[in-house]
Design goal:
- The strands form 3 sheets. Strands 1, 2, 3, 4, 7, 10, 11, 12 and 13 form a 9-stranded mixed beta sheet that branches. The chain has a two-stranded antiparallel ribbon with strand order 5-6. Strands 8-9 form a two-stranded antiparallel sheet.
- The radius of gyration is 21 Å and the shape is globular.
- Helix 3 packs antiparallel against helix 4.
- It is α+β, with helices and mostly antiparallel strands and 358 residues long.
- It starts with 5 loop residues before the first helix and ends with a strand.
- 39% of the residues lie in helices and 13% in strands.
- It has 13 helices and 13 strands.
- The chain folds into 2 domains: 136 residues, no CATH class; 215 residues, no CATH class.
- A hairpin with a 5-residue loop joins strand 8 and strand 9.
Length: 358
Amino acid sequence: MSLDPSTFLDGPRGRRLCLEILLDAARQSDTPVDRDATQAVFWAAHALAENPGTLIHIGGGDEPFVEPEVSSAQAAAALAEIPTPEITPARIERALEVAVDLAAYWQPPSGEDVLAAASEMRPVLAPVAAAIARSGRAASWTRPVDHDAQATVTWEGASPFRTDTEAVLSEWRANMAATEIQFAASAYSERLSGPWWSTPPVDLPRTTPSRGAEGPVGMSLVEDSLGWTSARTRSVTVPDGEVIEIDGPDAWASLCHRHPLVVTASRRNVWRWTTGREGVWVQPDWSALAKEAVGVHLTTAGYVATAGRVVDLGGLGASVLAGWGPDETFWFGEVAPSGEAEEWTREDSSGPGTWRRA
């Protein structure tokens, strides 16, 4: 299945992927034009961020520092001066890791995400999206789950997944109902946060494909990661049978329509903060879908096209895919170890880094 460039231009994570590829190329080339572009993006994003933080200026002179005023149009014009970069495996992996790691659906979007969504940026990002769609590295992003190459990842200090999946799903459904009732009964406040994810129960087995010496995909591609520097992985045997494939917004919407679970009270604020939409919110009822399949898989293309965006459900409301990782599968049935556990470490906990076997 071929990729359409719109896959990367219509979703927040896809746009951020394109932007990060441009910035990665600019930092590596480091010409005056490249430096102008990265500075323009920084200041434009800083101005667009709802919570930009505080900048500390260190330098000589008696004159006070004045922040440059850079518009979205000016940042787009500066980026347009950078040639469309080569989509190497290393570059696309670095950019995807950053785009996934900086997803945070419990707060307003970052200034960079707002900038990437600006109308002036689309013509700048479009050539990058087209280059990604043609690249060999992205060729696997539309593939369904590979039953024969799955592995689990257990982070330092985390408990392993549970094996009593029926009980996990039953408890999850009861907890979802209780949480929704609790939020509905609470005095409303615009500052009241709540759960933001729309994944199946986190205690279910979840896997990503193994990549040999690079380790499983799930070690590197984690939303809003906690900067882990050690992990344990294990190859597993997964259930035979039908796996639900989420390859884009339409597939997610279909699941919401098949088995809707209203989560307006609990997600009202967090999903409004991240999308700007106010209204009824729905997510799939995984306890019902578990009766129809052995698992649910999100393709990488489905992730970059869908994660974090408003998925319109017509009269039913809307939904957000949040908390997933690219190429991740949640399993509703038994998952058994098929190999020895492997320990991994990495030195850099502040951003993209290479995992190595311990």
